[in-house]
Amino acid sequence: MGAGHAHKLYRHGHTAVHALPPHCKLVAVLCFVLVVVSTPREAMWAFGVYAVLLGAVAYAARVPAGHLLKRLLIEVPFVAFAALMPFVAEGERVEVLGMPLSVQGLWGAWNVLAKGTLGVAASVLLASTTELRSLVLGLQRLKLPPMLVQIASFMIRYGDVITDEMRRMSVARRSRGFEARGVRHWGVLGKTAGALFIRSYERGERVHLAMVSRGYTGTMPVIDEVTATRAQWSCAAALPVAALAVCLLGWTL
Questions:
Q1: Three-state SS string across the chain, please?
Q2: 185 within some domain
Q3: Domain-located, residue 152
Q4: pLDDT tens, 77-128?
Q5: Judgement on whether residues 34 and 126 belong to the same structural domain of the protein
Q6: Which of 3, 31, 102, 111 could in theory staple to 240 by disulfide, Cβ–Cβ 3.0 to 4.6 A?
Q7: Are residues 52 and 106 in the same domain?
Q8: Based on the domain organization, do 41 and 71 belong to the same domain?
Q9: What's the total number of domains in the chain?
Q10: 94 strand-pairing partners
């Protein structure tokens, strides 16, 4: 896999959450999200308890609330979609602040907003406490298809490379007096996107030839063998097990 690859989402730390093996955290987050999705939307108190559980994990990992909230902005499009549901959904209507809103739409909006926010928050915590390279190793440890693991690894490695290439092209445009200010400039932006695609494709070919010349046969060597003890699995299971208990109460109460 090569050297480590840091990312803006990752916050370096030496907490117990950071120290957990990546595949343990991946399984814990996946199980937590499945439990949250399985919770009945009418059990509104349960989602508050889930938020408290995630807050406890963030406190243990020393992830500031500002860092978490800033990364939650990625779900703004889903919030906008949820805000429209009470207006467009069919069925019984109820008046809220003088506006007739669909009851089913309100429940649907709450369902999307609550479960989506908790899922995104759990993913942000995972990314904040685990390096991307470690996540790839965790996927490999969980026996995911090798081809998918390699694709994810290359995306992580070359995503920033392509971003830097795009930034250099933008600087070159601005140095020549170009500023995209309207529809008439879309042609230039389209040509830029085409040039970026060609450059990325050519770079990928060069990288592939370099790898083949060094003995690449379709599989990457495993440099770090990531293992987990029973205590680490138990620690990682604390979040989904607690969430499962809340979910069962939500269905029975």
A1: CCCCCCCCCCCCCCCHHHHCCHHHHHHHHHHHHHHHHHCCCCCHHHHHHHHHHHHHHHHHHCCCHHHHHHHHHHHHHHHHHHHHHHHHCCCCEEEECCEEEEHHHHHHHHHHHHHHHHHHHHHHHHHHHCCHHHHHHHHHHCCCCHHHHHHHHHHHHHHHHHHHHHHHHHHHHHHCCCCCCCHHHHHHHHHHHHHHHHHHHHHHHHHHHHHHHCCCCCCCCCCCCCCCCHHHHHHHHHHHHHHHHHHHHHHHC
A2: yes
A3: yes
A4: 888 888 888 888 887 888 777 788 888 889 999 999 999 999 999 999 999 9
A5: yes
A6: 31
A7: yes
A8: yes
A9: 2
A10: 101
Q: Is 11 contained in some domain?
A: no
**Among residues 236, 240, 244, 241, which one has the least CA distance to residue 61?**
236
**What single letter denotes the amino acid at residue 113?**
L
Give residue-wise pLDDT tens across range 166-182: 888 888 888 888 877 77
Tell me which residue range forms the domain holding 209: 146-213
